[in-house]
Specification:
The chain is mostly helical. The protein contains 23 helices and 2 strands. The protein has one domain. Helices cover 74% and strands 1% of the residues. It has a two-stranded antiparallel ribbon with strand order 1-2. A hairpin with a 6-residue loop joins strand 1 and strand 2. It is globular and about 70 Å long. The N and C termini lie far apart (68 Å). About 2% of the residues have low confidence.
């Protein structure tokens, strides 16, 4: 393995391949930072282009774009609360609040250092444990996926709200959105109201852009704010390498969320977005500043960024070891393997060791270049603060419109984005948290089909969720978390009531 890894580094560090990696990292940063583009879309566009340049160079390009885009989504999320990719939704909760407080430098530095750490740890796990972890992940059946989704939904109270009831209401909105379209088992239309565009379901990208970006633009327009008021720092002056105290301050988040993100990434279909949701929620539970999450604390930026970048590496494990994609992007990469005449799986390590270990080496190098290129890229990106405010708002809305349309080339998605932007604006005016909408939409899309298929396997018996050890454990943890959340909410209510009565 060591010899193969050294051979992989030798191949990846050749002058031509190194230039390709650097260029791909820059492209990934751009595609991740621009709202609506995302790494998935860029990888899709690159697959046919890379067909004629050989598999080694092709997959170095694809993996570099993928990894860089997962990080870069946090840049626009922190600066404008406009996530460049779904993985960065949770990062915007604290990142944008830090920008409003004049701490954009700290927020972006935290994001890039956390992203690189998560990516490197995930790549180390990928390199040394890929086949073993992939085989273990196969123990997850539909029952385990359902229980995992329920476990995620019980964490809803931690996503940007002190009011459990309001968080639960917005989560239910997300769950309702996940049910629109074709029934996952019988393939019968439901909640489409005769609108043919609803048959394919409601896409995540326009919901994210509307809920976070459009609603924020409406809020800023109403306030009549200027960019100088939105962010007092027009230049990014972060360091290239993380200082030692960064690892001391975030040691729990870095260690726990790197492992958690990799684990979520291994599970087929879960992806980096789910990992960021879990990472943020877990960090809020064990962090000393847990109660301050959502108000603009660096821990709230580090937690999702570690998890989603570790997940992007973890998603490569089932792809390379079993030929099963762990995310939307790796599903596209599976097509790229087939296009190049290869079938991912256990034999790939024997038949194409140079390719596999060059990909591993490339992922290490990519995370290093994300650190090195980040400062220059963000400095260029922050020049947007020198543009007149009205122009910036117009550009963001234009990019959101393009992103909503391009994801499925459907004008209807633009209307969905605009409508949910207006709905989200009024929800936020009434102090309803927006993040649980995304949580419900993402995890609802996992929970329902998994539950239906699990019940089909057990001939309608719910005992399948309790007789399988992993599923039962997750459900018990969900119950404990739910009771604890209810107790905490009741305790906070009593404290507030006592304060008011004494006042």
């Amino acid at each position: 393995m060591i010899n193969n890894l050294l051979m992989g580094f030798g191949t990846a560090l050749s002058p031509v391949n190194l230039i390709l990696i650097i260029s791909s990292v820059v492209l990934g940063l751009v595609s991740g930072a621009v709202p609506g583009m995302s790494g998935v879309m860029t990888v899709v566009l690159l697959v046919p282009i890379t067909y004629g340049i050989g598999p080694v160079k092709a997959f170095l390009i694809l993996t570099a774009v993928y990894s860089a885009a997962v990080y870069a989504g946090s840049i626009s999320a922190i600066m404008f609360r406009t996530p460049g990719a779904p993985e960065a939704v949770v990062t915007s909760l604290d990142g944008y609040k830090m920008t409003q407080k004049g701490r954009m430098n700290e927020a972006i530095s935290t994001a890039v250092f956390a992203s690189a750490t998560g990516g490197i740890v995930g790549t180390i796990i990928l390199t040394f444990l890929a086949p073993q972890l992939a085989k273990w992940a196969l123990n997850f059946s539909e029952a385990e996926y359902f229980s995992l989704a329920i476990f995620g939904l019980t964490l809803v109270s931690s996503l940007g709200s002190k009011n459990l009831v309001k968080a639960f209401i917005t989560m239910c909105i997300g769950l309702l959105l996940a049910t629109v379209g074709l029934d996952p088992v019988k393939m019968m239309p439901r909640f489409t109201f005769g609108i043919s565009e609803f048959l394919g379901g409601i896409d995540l990208v326009p919901i994210i852009l509307g809920t976070f970006a459009i609603s924020e633009m409406l809020r800023q327009i109403r306030k009549g704010a200027k960019l100088s008021e939105m962010n007092s720092e027009a230049q990014y002056s972060g360091t290239l390498l993380p200082p030692f105290h960064f690892f001391v301050k975030f040691k729990k988040i870095l260690s726990i969320n790197s492992l958690l993100g990799t684990f979520i990434g291994i599970l087929p279909g879960a992806g980096a977005t789910t990992a960021s949701l879990f990472g943020y929620s877990f960090a809020q539970r064990f962090s000393k500043n847990g109660k301050d999450f959502g108000t603009g604390v660096p821990e709230g930026v580090a937690a999702p960024e570690v998890a989603n970048n570790a997940a992007s590496a973890g998603a490569m494990i089932p792809l390379l070891s079993l030929g099963i994609p762990g995310s939307a992007t790796t599903a596209v990469m599976l097509g790229a393997f087939i296009l190049h005449g290869m079938q991912p799986g256990p034999l790939l390590f024997q038949q194409q060791p140079k390719l596999v270990y060059t990909i591993f080496a490339g992922l290490f190098i990519v995370n290093v270049f994300i650190l090195l290129l980040n400062k220059g890229f963000v400095r260029v990106f922050t020049q947007i603060f020198k543009v007149p405010y009205t122009v910036v708002i117009s550009i963001i809305i234009l990019l959101c419109t393009i992103g909503a349309y391009a994801n499925r080339t459907n004008v209807f998605d633009i209307w969905v984005m605009l409508i949910f932007g207006i709905i989200a604006y009024f929800l936020e005016e009434q102090d309803y948290p927006l993040a649980p909408i995304i949580l419900g939409l993402v995890l609802g899309g996992i929970a329902e089909p998994s539950m239906r298929r699990a019940l089909s396997m057990s001939y309608g018996s719910f005992t399948i969720f309790f007789t399988r050890p992993i599923s039962a454990t997750l459900l018990i943890l969900s119950l404990i978390l739910f009771i604890w959340s209810m107790y905490s909410a009741f305790k906070d209510y009593q404290i507030t009531k006592n304060i008011k009565s004494e006042g």
